[in-house]
Amino acid sequence: MKVYAMEGIHHEDQWRYIIILSKTLYQFLHQGLFKSFGVMIPAMVAQLGCSYSVAGLISSIHFTVTYIMCPVAQRLAGRFSKQTIAVAGGCIFSLSISCVFFTQSPLIMGILLSFAGCGNSMIFQTSYAVLQEHFGDQFGSMHALTSIGLGVGAIILPLLTYELLGVYGLQGTFLILGGLTANTIPLCATFRSPCHVPSNKIQKSRYNKHSLLRMEEESEDGDFEWDNNGSVGDENDGMSSCEPRYFLDIMIKTLALEALWKEREFVFIMLPCQLLLDIIFAGWSLFVVSFAVSVGIPPDRAPYLLIVGVVGGLLTRLLITMVLRTRPHWATILYGIFTLILTTAVFLYYISSTFYYLCACSFIAGFGLYGADIAFYACLAASVSEGNFPGVLASSFFFTGIGMASSGYITGRLYDITNSFEIVFQLFGGIGVLIFILTLIFIYRQRTNSIY
């Protein structure tokens, strides 16, 4: 009986350091683009003649689709190599954003950015899965390390985008950003699994209903086919595509329902926390510049609130990298602490509207927001079994997509109704309180389970 478990990560694997570099550079482009869309919202409202709610929806739809399509990307990674899926996603990602140059229709722009999200999801899901394969228990600290690229990109690209808008306009800016995202293609070519992960070329045999994500042992009756995620061969090969059972099996595998059920405590408590956190994350990232302008901050200084928040996030990433390197089991506690910091900062926005005060609030908000975001994935890696990790991760991205979709439109809609971003930010604070309470419940459940 052979064992193909991934717990024994090969420390002599040198390629994993290339993975760290590539993922860091990809994060630079991924998060920088998201922050750039927040800077572009006022230009969308002015040049496209749409409302803030529509501009918020267009700005967030790319990232909404990116996260929602991650379960499908995970499914594709089981059929093809992760490297192939990531490179194909990079091509779709770059081409779709570049094509926005040719339209001024909000509808067509939204469709093209949706296609960009489909391509980006193939990169996004693969980058996390490959990082976990190479580093195992050190995933949390390595993810925090690569997330430094998020902070740097979120500082540089919004400033670049602001300058590009003044020189080339909205369409020209999209074309240039599309060219920048083409750099994801060579980066994706490095996203390959470590050599000790079984390939999907091994002989097929029967299907084991208890191993939708990964088989760790060879059956006594025969060999299982392994896919790139460590999954067994697909029973669907001998099943008619017209049978209801076929579609049910595809849905179960794509949504990783078995993995979700096995990790139901994490799913029912922490995934809703991530959904709520992403509502705050998207709303703050997309509208903090507009909020600053609405309270009297000059438009040329307003983007600095976003940048200061990112600097706070960069600091917290360095802190989390050092802490989780030696204390990975602290991830859930850190998540609760950073959530409380975020909630406090969002409520503090209401007190004053001076530029330096708002910068201080943004720094604290960014420190808590980015810290909670990084700590969540470290918490996920520490709380769920390794075999269930890819499926639960893809589902967490799906929840993130829902949060992105709802936040962009709802935040803009609330502003259209109340004409006050201050009220919207106070609602964000209320959501933060709810996240903190749910996190305390999960910590209590973890400690109770460890005792019994």
TrEMBL record:
Entry superkingdom: Eukaryota
InterPro entries in the cross-refs: MFS, MFS_trans_sf, Proton-linked_MCT
Single GO MF descriptor: monocarboxylic acid transmembrane transporter activity
Protein name: Uncharacterized protein
SUPFAM superfamilies for this protein: MFS general substrate transporter
UniProt keywords, alphabetically: Membrane, Transmembrane, Transmembrane helix
PANTHER family (UniProt xref): MAJOR FACILITATOR SUPERFAMILY (MFS) PROFILE DOMAIN-CONTAINING PROTEIN, MONOCARBOXYLATE TRANSPORTER
Entry's transmembrane regions: 52-73, 85-103, 109-131, 143-162, 275-297, 303-320, 332-349, 355-380, 392-411, 423-444
Entry GO CC: plasma membrane
